[in-house]
Design a protein that fits this description.
heterodimer, A: 284 residues, mainly alpha, MetI-like fold, 11 helices, B: 248 residues, alpha/beta, Rossmann fold, 10 helices, 10 strands
C-alpha cells in the first residue's frame, strides 16, 4: 500500500471517529431537547411538583441546585486557590509537592459515591450539619477541589517570572507579589477552572444523595441547614421511583433539559469570564 | 558608592563569580561588558539581592553600598530593594494602568497618602522622560505603550520609590534604535541623581553612556577602568580583542 493511500485511510478513520463522538453528543442533546422542550413552560420553571411529581414544576429543585452551586463555589474557591498558591508559590520541597499533586489527582479519580458516603459520615454526622445545604455544598466542593487546585497551579505556572521579579525588585514581599500581581493575572484561568468544575459537580447525584437532597420538598430552603431538592436527584427520583413513572416521564425530560441548560450556561459563563478578564490582564 | 571586596558567587556547584573587587563611585555610570555567561548579570543582581530568589546559591566576600554590607543578617532585603532599583532586559510592566505601575512600589511599601502618590508618579514619569507622552492616559493599560515607552515606564516605576542606585540589565537590548537612544539620553540625565550600573552587550552603548567599564570573562573581572581607556587603550589583551569585536 502506498503512503498516500495509507494517509487517506488514516485521516478518514480519524474524521469518522471524530464525527462519531460529536454525533453522539448531538444525538443526546437533541434527544433531550426533543423530549423535554414540550414540558418547559413558565409554570414548569416556577412551580412546585404536584400529583406525585407527574405535574407541576421543578422550581424547588432549580433553587436547590443553584444553592448548592453557590455553596460549593464559596467553599472550593478559597480553599482550592489557596492550596494552589501554597503548592506553586510557597512549597520548596519538590517531594512534598509531588506527593500532594499525586494525592490531588487521585482525589479527582475517586468515584463520586465515595465522596457522598464520606460527606455523610463527616459533615452530616460527625460535624452535625444534618442533611443540609451546608453538608451538600461541602461534599460537592470536595469533588470540585482537585480540579480547582490543579487549574490554579497551572494558571500560576503560566505567569512569566518577569512579573514576580519586577515586583520583588521594588521591595514587595512574597504575599504582596502574589495578591497584587500574580493572582490577578492568573484569575481568569482560575475562574474558568472553578466554574467548569463546579458546573460539572452540580450535575452529580451521588454526592448529594446522602448529604442534602430531599425526595420531595415543595418549599424553598430558609437557611443553610435546610434540605433542598436538587435537579440531578429529582431527575433520578422521577425516572426510577416516582409514584407513577410513566406519567412523570415528560417531567424527567424537562428536568434533564434544565439541568443540561444550567451546566451549559455555566460553561459559557466560564468562557465569557476568561475572555473578559483576559483582555484586561493580557500578558505581553 | 558601591564596593565589592573579594566576592565569590556559586550556583550550586558552578563558580560564577571569582574574587571580584570593584568600586563604583556615587553618581557615575558603570558599564559591565563581557561575553554571554561571563557573570556580569549575576554580578549586577548581587546589589539588590535578586540572586537570593534562585535556589541553592551562595555568596562570599563583601558587598557594600554606602559602606553597609548588604549581605549582613540585619539587612532587610525589601528595604534594600527600595534603595537599589532595577530595570530588566525585557520591559516588564505589570498588567495594570500606567499610573498603577508607577505607584506600585509605593503601595507595596505602605504609602497611603493619595496626593503624595500622585506627586511621586508624576515626578517619576517626568524623570523617566515619559510624562509628556502619557499624562493624558494615565488610567490606560501599560500594555498600550510601545516597547520603548514600556521600558521608560519600568524606569519610572523603579524611580518612584526613591532609590539611590539603579541597576540596568541590558535595558535596551529588546528595543529599536530610536527607543534605545532615548534610554541612553535618559541614563545621561539620571546620572546626576543616581548611581547607575548597566550590563550591556552593545560596545558602542557602553562607550557612549558610561564613565567606567568593567570587562568580565568566565566569572572574572579581567579589566576595570575609565571607559575611554578600556575602549581606546586597554591594558589586557583579552579586553582589547573583545572591545574590538574579535571574539565574544
Amino acid at each position: 500500500m502506498n503512503k498516500k493511500l495509507k494517509q487517506s485511510i488514516a485521516f478518514a478513520t480519524f474524521r469518522l471517529l471524530g464525527f462519531l463522538v460529536v454525533g453522539v453528543l448531538f444525538y443526546i442533546l437533541g434527544f433531550i431537547v426533543y423530549n423535554g422542550a414540550g414540558v418547559i413552560s413558565w409554570e414548569f420553571l416556577t412551580a412546585s411538583p404536584e400529583e406525585g411529581m407527574s405535574a407541576g414544576g421543578i422550581f424547588p429543585a432549580i433553587v436547590g441546585t443553584l444553592c448548592l452551586v453557590a455553596g460549593s463555589v464559596a467553599i472550593a474557591f478559597p480553599v482550592g486557590v489557596m492550596s494552589g498558591i501554597y503548592i506553586h508559590e510557597y512549597l520548596r520541597n519538590k517531594w512534598v509537592a509531588r506527593v500532594i499533586r499525586v494525592m490531588t489527582n487521585n482525589l479527582g479519580g475517586i468515584p463520586s459515591i465515595v465522596f457522598g458516603l464520606f460527606g455523610m459520615a463527616l459533615f452530616v454526622q460527625a460535624f452535625g450539619f444534618g442533611d443540609s445545604i451546608l453538608a451538600g455544598s461541602f461534599t460537592l466542593a470536595l469533588l470540585a477541589l482537585p480540579l480547582v487546585i490543579r487549574t490554579t497551579e497551572e494558571a500560576l505556572k503560566a505567569i512569566p517570572g518577569s512579573y514576580r521579579a519586577g515586583s520583588y525588585a521594588l521591595g514587595a514581599g512574597k504575599l504582596q507579589t502574589i495578591f497584587r500581581v500574580t493572582l490577578p493575572v492568573a484569575m481568569p484561568n482560575i475562574l474558568t477552572g472553578l466554574i467548569l468544575s463546579v458546573g460539572r459537580v452540580s450535575g452529580e447525584t451521588a454526592p448529594i444523595l446522602f448529604t442534602v437532597a430531599a425526595y420531595f420538598l415543595p418549599r424553598l430552603p430558609s437557611g443553610i441547614f435546610d434540605q433542598v431538592m436538587a435537579l440531578p436527584y429529582h431527575l433520578y427520583v422521577i425516572a426510577t421511583s416516582g409514584t407513577d413513572i410513566e406519567a412523570s416521564r415528560p417531567m424527567a425530560y424537562g428536568t434533564a433539559l434544565v439541568l443540561v441548560a444550567i451546566v451549559l450556561v455555566m460553561n459559557l459563563l466560564a468562557t465569557a469570564t476568561r475572555l473578559r478578564l483576559g483582555k484586561k490582564t493580557k500578558m505581553d | 558608592m558601591i564596593e565589592t571586596k573579594h566576592v565569590d558567587f556559586y550556583y550550586s556547584g558552578f563558580h560564577a563569580l571569582k574574587d571580584i573587587s570593584m568600586r563604583m563611585e556615587a553618581r557615575t555610570v558603570t558599564a559591565l561588558i563581557g561575553p554571554s555567561g561571563c557573570g556580569k548579570s549575576t554580578f549586577l543582581r548581587l546589589f539588590n539581592r535578586m540572586n537570593d530568589l534562585i535556589d541553592d546559591t551562595r555568596v562570599s566576600g563583601e558587598c557594600l553600598i554606602d559602606g553597609e554590607d548588604i549581605y549582613h543578617k540585619s539587612v532587610a532585603v525589601d528595604e534594600l530593594r527600595k534603595r537599589v532599583g532595577m530595570v530588566f532586559q525585557k520591559p516588564n510592566p505589570f498588567p495594570k494602568s500606567i499610573f498603577e505601575n508607577v505607584a506600585y512600589g509605593l503601595r507595596v511599601n505602605d504609602v497611603r497618602d493619595k496626593s503624595f502618590i500622585a506627586c511621586r508618579v508624576e515626578a517619576s514619569l517626568r524623570a523617566a522622560a515619559l510624562w509628556g507622552e502619557v499624562k493624558d492616559k494615565l488610567r490606560e493599560s501599560a500594555f498600550a505603550l510601545s516597547g520603548g515607552q514600556q521600558q521608560r515606564l519600568c524606569i519610572a516605576r523603579a524611580l518612584a520609590v526613591s532609590p539611590s542606585v539603579l541597576l540596568m540589565d541590558e535595558p535596551a537590548s529588546a528595543l529599536d534604535p530610536i527607543s534605545t537612544s532615548k534610554i541612553e539620553e535618559l541614563i545621561a540625565d539620571l546620572k546626576r541623581d543616581y548611581t547607575i550600573v548597566i550590563v550591556t552587550h552593545n560596545m558602542q552603548q557602553a562607550a557612549r553612556v558610561s564613565d567606567k567599564t568593567g570587562f568580565f570573562m568566565m566569572g572574572e573581572l579581567v579589566e576595570f577602568g575609565e571607559t575611554r581607556m578600556i575602549f581606546s587603550d586597554p591594558v589586557n589583551e583579552q579586553t582589547r580583542n573583545y572591545v574590538n569585536g574579535r571574539f565574544g
